[in-house]
Amino acid sequence: MTVRGVSRGLRAALLLVLLPLLVVAMLAANIWWFGHRDDNAPADAAIILGAAAWNGRPSPVFRERIRHAVSLYEAGRVELLIFTGGQAPGEPLAESVAGARYAIHHGVPATDVLCEQASADTLNNLRGAAAIVESEAIGRVLVVSDPLHLRRAVTMARDLGLDAHPSPTATSRFQGMRAKSDFLWAEVRQYGGYLLQRPFLDPSANPSAIGPCEPLD
Predict the structure, then answer these.
(1) Residue 9, CA distances (Å) to 3, 19, 160 in order
(2) Which domain of life is it from (predicted)?
(3) CATH topology for 38-211?
C-alpha cells in the first residue's frame, strides 16, 4: 500500500471515530440548551410529566414538577393542569392521581385538574395527555418537567400533534454536576434512540388512558 493509501485509510478511520462523537456532542448541546428555555407566553394547559408516586404521595422529583405547575396556574399562565402517570405495582394510587391531589391540596380547584392513568413512560404520558387535549379542545400547552428531560418530551409532544412548549422546573431535584451529567447522558441515549425509532412509532393519542383524578376501584 502506498503512503497516499495509508493516509486515506487513516483519515477514514479517524472520521469513523469522530463522527459518532460529534453526533453525541450535538445531541448533548441541544438537550442542554433547550432545557434552559422557558416559554413565557400564556397557554391553555400545563402537562405535568409523571415521576413516580411513593405510598400515594408524589416523589421528590415529581413534587417539584407539580409545584412549578401550580405556580404557573397561580400566575395565570395556564388555566388547566393535566397530570400523567399510571399506577405502579404495589402503589395505592396512580402517579397522576397523587399529583392531582397534591395540586388540589395546594389550592388548585378540582375542576381545573385532569388526569390520565395508564402510562409508564414519557411517550405514553404524552399519548394520554394528547387524548385529554383533544377531548377538551385545548390549544397551546406547556410541558412541565426537569430541564434536561424537555428536549425529548417536547419533541414527542409535537410529534403527537400538540402545540407544545417547554416549561422547565426551576427547582429540579437534579442538582450538582454529577447528577446533571448523569441525567444529560441518559437523555442523550434516550433522545437519540427516540429519533432513530421515530419513523416507526404510533403518533396517535390514547383515549383509553383518560381517567378521573381520584382512585379507580
Answers:
(1) 10, 15, 44
(2) Bacteria
(3) Rossmann fold (3.40.50)
Q: For strands 45-48 and 80-83, give the pairing.
A: parallel
pLDDT at 26: 86
Specify the pLDDT at position 54: 92
pLDDT at 2: 57
Which amino acid appears at position 102 of this protein?
Y
Nearest-10 Cα torsion for 64, 105, 46, 138: 170
Phi then psi dihedrals of residue 23, to 5 deg: -60, -45
How confident is the model over 183-200, as pLDDT tens digits? Answer: 899 999 999 999 999 989
Q: Please choose, from the candidates 116, 97, 95, the residue with its C-alpha nearest in 3D space to the C-alpha of residue 209.
A: 116
Strands 163-168 and 140-145: parallel
Residue boundaries of the structural domains of the chain: 38-211
| HEC letters along 72-119 | HHHCCCCCEEEECCCCCCCCCCCHHHHHHHHHHHCCCCHHHEEEECCC
Q: Is the pTM of this model over 0.85?
A: yes
Question: Does residue 175 contact residue 133 with C-beta atoms inside 8 Å?
Answer: no
- 199: burial class by Cβ within 10 Å (0-12, 13-18, 19+)? exposed
Handedness of CA 168, 170, 173, 175 (dihedral sign): positive
Regions of the chain with pLDDT less than 70: 1-21, 215-217
